[in-house]
Amino acid sequence: MAIWNLYRKQNSDCSTKDWAIKTNSDGSIGTRWGKTATHLPSLSTRNGIRQFDIEKQKRAKGYVFLAEVEIDDVDGKITFLKPGHQHAPQQVLVSQPESPVPIGALYWHIDCRAEPEVCVELGSYVRRLIADIQAMQKKEAYLEPDAYQNWEVWQQLVDLTLKAERFTQSGQIKQAHGFMPFLFLLALKHKGFAGIEIDIATESSREVTADLKAELEVLEFFGTDLDSIRDTAEILGLLKPKLNLASAMSDTDDYWF
């Protein structure tokens, strides 16, 4: 089994989540994550970034290094090394001039540890957002009619939030899925439910903020821009509606004489 660096972060509700990283023999970076347990099931592989840089980003987010561990490639089982254990050093990459890392995909993670009433509120909000998205896709010309079906996670999240129970779920949004799943998750993140943590990250482990105006690079990845999706973003609560001055003035009596 490979050697990984294991990190842990404590959430505001005193729960914890773990994250592990290693450099593969081909220079790519492997990461695993999940709530603190004996296994780390979620796995991703990234290219074009150094392990050192990713670990620095994670430490800045509150993750603390725990230990070097072995993680089984099949089921993600964690084994802490015994004292005095010797292992081959991980490959050290020679520093190269930095260059922009293509997004490739978005990685998302939802950790719901909220109280039951908040879980119910989350479920209602998820179903409302999906209903809004389906309604928009029927009438907006710039939205693909079948775009809703492209991302298989829609129904998974509906099922998970119907139970009003705590859950953890993660996955990817690829370019072929379109921008709608991204806006959907961003709307959930923007809502800010207590006890529910929603993380979205790019291929280079850059955390995506809840401010859509700051994520033009992600919109470009999906082949769109802020102006093109403004109406959709306003309906989902990600942008404030623009004030139409011409319309506003037309409703005002003219007192000039």
Distance between the termini: 85 Å
Low-confidence stretches: 88-100
Spell the H/E element sequence. EEEEHEEEHHEHEHHH
Percent of sequence in beta strands: 15-25%
- Total E-strand runs: 9
Structure write-up:
By secondary structure, the protein is of the alpha+beta class. The chain has two domains: 2-80; 105-235, no CATH class. 29% of the residues lie in helices and 24% in strands. It is built from seven helices and nine strands, in the order ββββαβββααβαβααα. The strands form two sheets. The chain has a six-stranded antiparallel β-sheet, with helices on one face. A three-stranded antiparallel β-sheet has the order 8-7-9, with helices on one face. α2 (116-139) runs antiparallel to α3 and α2 packs antiparallel against α4.
